[in-house]
Amino acid sequence: MKFSLAALVVVLALAHGSQAAQSPEVEKLAQYFQDLSAQLTSTTQELVRKIQSETFLEDGKAQLQQIQAKLAPLADNMQAQLKPLAENMQAQLKPLVDNVQAQMEDLFRKVMDQTKALGQ
């Protein structure tokens, strides 16, 4: 019995010693899993942020397309209404512009003639 008790103590001491020897390996393994867990958490958070930003951009694009779809008929309508008005104004202003241009050309010609007369 003393022998078996001594053997048990020796076996326990060896087992404890082997666990103590494995302890750095277990610590390394535990550290590896902690690092892996931290990296997985970080990557997951980054992925969630990217998905949220892509969703935000897609929502923005969809809203802009809806606004564009609503504004396109209004813009076409405004253009259809303003085009005759612009053509009418252009028709009314063209004679005035032509008249001013003719007067400016006549004035320029007179100034040139007077400059020539002064030079002689």
Automatic annotation (TrEMBL):
Q: What is this protein called?
A: Type-4 ice-structuring protein-like
Species name = Salvelinus namaycush
Q: Which residues form the signal peptide?
A: 1-20
Question: Cross-referenced Gene3D superfamilies, in alphabetical order?
Answer: 6.10.250.100
Superkingdom: Eukaryota
Give UniProt keywords alphabetically: Signal
Source gene?
LOC120026956
